[in-house]
Write a structure and sequence with these properties.
This protein is globular. The protein has helices spanning 2-22, 39-43, 50-63, 65-68, 72-88, 93-103, 115-128. The protein has seven helices and no strands. The chain has a domain at 39-128. The chain is mostly helical. 65% of the residues lie in helices and 0% in strands.
């Protein structure tokens, strides 16, 4: 077991070294530049603060305590994923609401949320977790 682990670590190190060597520049060549995009812009998943997350969960609880159903971390994770939907379909609110309806299930709503509730969830995610989208 130890031999396999050591071999895997050495192989990974060699692969990393080879990949790094491929990126070396030739003398006199200008370095390649790429636009600097944040992880948020690339993935559609917002960076959130604890204050934003708490405000989001409070907003969900004000709609219906069953939405977060006592699991704030899960609710925030779903909210961040909802932000990806908002990011990916900015002009398709019907799609956003449909995804929120399906995403925020609970023991009392195992299949989906009502469209009216999903619309409020979508608005809460947008307002508290990803207002830049």
């Amino acid at each position: 077991m130890r031999t396999r682990t050591t071999t895997a670590v050495v192989a990974a190190g060699l692969l990393l070294a080879a990949l790094t060597a491929c990126g070396t520049e030739t003398a006199g060549a200008e370095p390649a530049t790429s636009p600097s995009l944040s992880e948020e812009e690339l993935t559609g998943l917002p960076d959130t603060t604890p204050q934003q997350e708490a405000a989001f969960v409070a907003a969900l609880d004000s709609i219906d305590k069953d939405i977060a159903h006592g699991d704030a971390d899960k609710a925030v994770g779903r909210g961040r994923n909802q932000c990806r939907t908002i990011h990916d379909w900015p002009d398709d609110e019907a799609k956003q609401i449909d995804q929120a309806a399906q995403r925020f299930t609970s023991p009392k709503h195992p299949d989906a949320r009502a469209p009216e509730t999903a619309e409020k969830i979508n608005a809460a995610a947008h307002a508290h977790l990803c207002p830049a989208f």
